């Protein structure tokens, strides 16, 4: 499972406490002296991340919603209660993030496994979702051996038509439901979205 990010802004004592117990945590955290330092760090995935601030602090940065902010109002708080509170917020964020992924004009809901566009929906299998997410990940072409290795965990020496069969069926489902034969593109070098 991919660990989610916690960004701690202007709250050094909390950062120091978490740093001491980081081996036991299910999230990654990073400390920022102030909001300006946080905004400057452009390598951050701020959408699916939790931001922790002091109750008296207010953030002006507009690229995240209040759902991403956790103000620790009830201090002092036990470490167990703090970790529980953080984990609950992260679960809510992950659920909301996974409910609406936009890919090439379609909405992919990882929670319900529906792929939709303009009030038309198609239920996908777990493997079909994995294929779409993998092909969409870096917008490059992926050949059969790459997909075999990274989605199915097969050795590239094994002769199989699993990849071609799954992608053929997925492309057919999307074309029949949405009349779109260009969602997954195929050529001699591989597949891409």
Secondary structure elements and pairings:
Elements: E1 4-9, H1 12-20, E2 27-32, H2 35-40, E3 50-53, E4 69-71, H3 79-98, E5 101-103, E6 106-109, E7 114-117, E8 120-123, H4 126-137, H5 144-152, H6 162-178, E9 185-187, E10 190-192
Parallel strand pairs: 1-2, 1-3, 3-4
Antiparallel strand pairs: 5-6, 6-7, 7-8, 9-10
Overview of this structure, please?
This protein is an alpha/beta fold and 193 residues long. It is 38% helix and 21% strand. It folds into 2 domains: 4-98, Rossmann fold; 101-192, Winged helix-like DNA-binding domain superfamily/Winged helix DNA-binding domain (Arc Repressor Mutant, subunit A), CATH 1.10.10. The chain has helices at residues 12-20, 35-40, 79-98, 126-137, 144-152, 162-178, and strands spanning 4-9, 27-32, 50-53, 69-71, 101-103, 106-109, 114-117, 120-123, 185-187, 190-192. The strands form 3 sheets. Strands 2-1-3-4 form a 4-stranded parallel β-sheet. Strand 5 (101-103) and strand 6 (106-109) form a beta hairpin. The relative contact order is 0.10. The model has no long low-confidence stretch (mean pLDDT 87).
- Count of helix runs: 6
Given as residue ranges, the uncertain stretches (5+ residues, pLDDT < 50) are none
Taken from the alpha-carbon principal axes, the silhouette is elongated
Strand order of the largest sheet: 2-1-3-4
Question: In total, how many beta strands?
Answer: 10
The CATH class name of the largest domain reads Alpha Beta
Radius of gyration: 21 Å
Percent range for β-strand residues: 15-25%
- State the domain count: 2
- Major β-sheet profile: 4 strands, parallel
How far apart are the first and last residues' alpha carbons, in Å?
24 Å
* Percent helix: 25-40%
Average of per-residue pLDDT values: 87
**Classification by helices and strands:** alpha/beta
Oligomer status: single chain
């Amino acid at each position: 499972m991919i660990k989610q990010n916690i960004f701690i802004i202007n709250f050094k004592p909390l950062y120091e406490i978490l740093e001491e117990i980081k081996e036991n945590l299910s999230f990654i955290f990073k400390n920022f002296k102030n909001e300006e330092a946080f905004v400057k760090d452009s390598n951050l995935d701020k959408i699916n991340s939790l931001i922790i601030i002091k109750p008296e602090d207010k953030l002006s940065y507009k690229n995240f919603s209040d759902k991403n902010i956790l103000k620790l109002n009830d201090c002092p708080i036990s470490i167990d209660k703090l970790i529980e509170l953080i984990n609950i917020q992260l679960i809510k964020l992950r659920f909301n993030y996974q409910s609406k992924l936009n890919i090439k004009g379609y909405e992919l809901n990882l929670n319900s496994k529906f792929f939709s566009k303009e009030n038309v929906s198609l239920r996908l299998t777990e493997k079909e979702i994995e294929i779409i997410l993998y092909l969409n990940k870096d917008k490059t072409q992926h050949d059969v051996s790459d997909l075999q290795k990274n989605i199915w965990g097969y050795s590239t020496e094994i002769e199989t038509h699993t990849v071609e069969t799954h992608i053929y069926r997925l492309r057919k489902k999307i074309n029949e439901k949405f009349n779109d034969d260009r969602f997954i593109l195929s050529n001699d070098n591989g597949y891409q979205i």
